[in-house]
Amino acid sequence: MREKTLPWLMAVSALAAAACLAGLAWTLYDYFREVPPVTLTKPPEAVQEAPAAPAEDDGKFRVLALGDSLTRGYGDPEGKGYAGYLADALKGKAKEEVVLENLGVNGQTSPQLAEMLGQAAVQGQVKAADIILVSIGGNDLFRGGETLATLDLAAVAKIQEEYTKQLQGILGRLRELNPQANLFLIGLYNPFIELKDANVTSKIVRDWNYQAAETAAAYPKTVLVPTFDLFQLKVSDYLYTDQFHPNVQGYKLIAERAAALVTW
């Protein structure tokens, strides 16, 4: 009897899992179809070229921010984002003048950041930095909602594998250019945690962060700054009107978490 029942139970479980994923895909399809266009009071501008790095140590404490729209501050009317609020927090602690260079680019992916690090001006900024902030990977994973709206766990695993290789190259290059600066990699949060079947998307994001943290741990003075828990309990309070990027409060949470890790 058990031998006949087991295949039947496995088949039912497989159908239930497929239905769950199908329901999530349909929910996310509706979500991205209905998201209103975004309007910022002060839209952030994409950085085309990095400013020239200082020729010598000028006694300033330099914070370099690299990466995607979270670094750029999309969703913050002032365009500060977590990098700007972090710099503000450090100004009250540092003895030197704190200077922030924000080279974030809206929509940037890990291959694009890796390419950007080939620019001489960017390399100069990396060498001059006392702290390096990096937020990258959200566009690799979410792809404007395409990945999760057409949820395919095998495809997600492939995306994660490709991203890990890119991240290794990015972190390795940053450490080559500047072995001394503390490097903070900003982890991902789940903006879809209040939608149907959020346990699936949350597991994807947690697994993604775990692999990113393991990758970062292989490099000296490099840590992942967790953000998943900051948005977990009441994500809607910390998201911008597009329900994807952080709002001012969300960015300040990330900045406070990163600032707590900065040592002098």
UniProtKB/TrEMBL annotation:
InterPro entries assigned to the protein according to its UniProt record, in alphabetical order: Ester_Hydrolysis_Enzymes, SGNH_hydro, SGNH_hydro_sf
UniProt GO MF annotations: phosphatidylcholine lysophospholipase activity
Domain (SGNH hydrolase-type esterase): residue spans on this chain: 65-253
Protein name stated in the entry: Lysophospholipase L1-like esterase
Organism: Paenibacillus mucilaginosus (strain KNP414)
